[in-house]
Amino acid sequence: MELSTSAYEALLSQSTGMLTVIDETGDVRYQSPGLGLLGYADADLVGENVFLHVHPEDRERVLDSFKRLTTGAVDGDVEAVEYRFRESDGSWHWVESRGTAEPVSELGGYVVDSHSIEKRKAAEQDRSDILDRMTDGFFAVDREWKITYTNDAGREILGRAMGYNPETAVFEGRHLWKEVPEAVGTTFYNKHHQALKKQTPVTFEEYYEPLDAWLSIRTYPSEQGLSIYFRDITEQRPREQTLEHRERVLREMHTLTANRDTSFTEKIQALLALGRDELGTEYGSLSHIDGDEYIFEVVDTDNDDIEAGDVVPVEATNCERVASETETLVAGNVQRDTPEETERAGYAEWGVSCYLGAPVIVDGKVYGTFCFYDTEPREQQFGDWEVTIVDLLAHWASYELQREQTTEQLTEQNRRLDRFASIVSHDLRNPLSVFEGRLEMARETGDAEHFDAVERALNRMQQLIEDLLSLTRAEMEIEETEPITLDSLADECWEVVATDDATLTTGGDVDEAFFGDRSRVKQLLENLLRNAVEHGGDDVQVRVGSLPDGFFIEDDGPGVPPDARDDVFGWEYSTREQGTGLGLSIVRSIAHAHGWQVRVTDSETGGARFEVTGVRSSSPAKA
Hints:
single chain; alpha+beta; five-stranded antiparallel β-sheet; 17 helices
């Protein structure tokens, strides 16, 4: 049985919702009492075009939905449409409407069922207002990767990524990965798929090349999809922006290091300036670590509180850890990243709160560090690129210092070879010539006097050969050391020196032990004692004593003239006709092989005084 028009109207009037009947032109043919919610009574809207009461910004969308009804573009009920409808007092009210796909002929139009969504929209607006006030970007996607919401900051970054105007584009409903296909397969893609699949939050920082930006991402999953918070942190990572930038820095490093017109120190200075600019630190330095001392070898900074040549205790610096572990130390914020280092004076007293340093290795041992630091901590940790830069600089410094040392060693070896050749060709040739001449004359005359000259020539040749061998051995690297007591070894050496009426006394803490190669230290002392006797006279008085970091041997002889003190350690320097000139060269070589220094000055009586310093005591208190 078909219902009459009045029956339909009676049925519709019982509905608690807002029902209207609209003809194909949009005119209202019927309204239910439910429209009283919007202030309309009886038939206030009947005969009016309903679309005139739709908000202008929503009208086109609503008209499009209604057109689909009238043209039969849908099967069954048309999808719901949300829009703002004018209330009787002129204010706007959010409603959701759904119409039947076929008109009801008895009523002369389509039945449209509407209900209020004002509360839901108000809640959404509150959430939107909160999210739009966020400085972080935010957007949400459903499980099909379609964007369901974006805040203002999110629209800004998504607009840049997708190539849309963030002020006019509609992002909702767009497929994230189809809109940014260049992100597929990247960390962004993999991390978000991981979060959705495992339903676990993810947090990471990553460089996104299409935007030339570093992004900090926090993603939280739910059954509906993902909520993604992100922030552009490029300003905090200004030096890690592009491959082009990295290539430029590497080219600049190559240009600086390949310049043959600049010295090693000048190159280091330029590299430190480059590193400081790249890392944004206040200080950069190449240091040399010598025992307990940290020596600033080259420094780059804009202030003068640290200068090249300054020395501080190595234990006060983070570099001690770099040297002991021979590994790069990375601490963007010392208190946060390496809290165990906050007890050092470098942090507690000098305020070094940010540090990145790598070891400089020469000849297999730690020479020092190449480091950068600041009194201000960094918000972010140093990145891989920044660590790589410092490692490269430290490796280059290591290579150059090693090459410089090798060059010096080769130069010294060539110099020694030249002098060996000179001694062999000249000093040995002279007694050999005497030997040959006298031997021939002895054969002719039989005079014994010539045999005495032959013997002296042989003795001379033997002494030269022994001294050459001693010098060669003296320059060999020290491999093992042992505790040595100065007074007992000096007495032992004195016994083998031709002393005549000379005397030896000791003074100071000569019974305190120090570390050294005993056989070579014995040779050093014998040469110094023999030198004192040979140049001080038969009755010379020799004294051996200790220094805070070494020992001395002095005599009361004529001494060494000031203008000759730089020459006495040279090869072939001798004031005696029969001397080889190698004795004090052997002394210097033995001292240098131990890492000691030796110099000549005046004794209290005006004689010669040889001081050996840089000697490491075996006493625990001084070690």
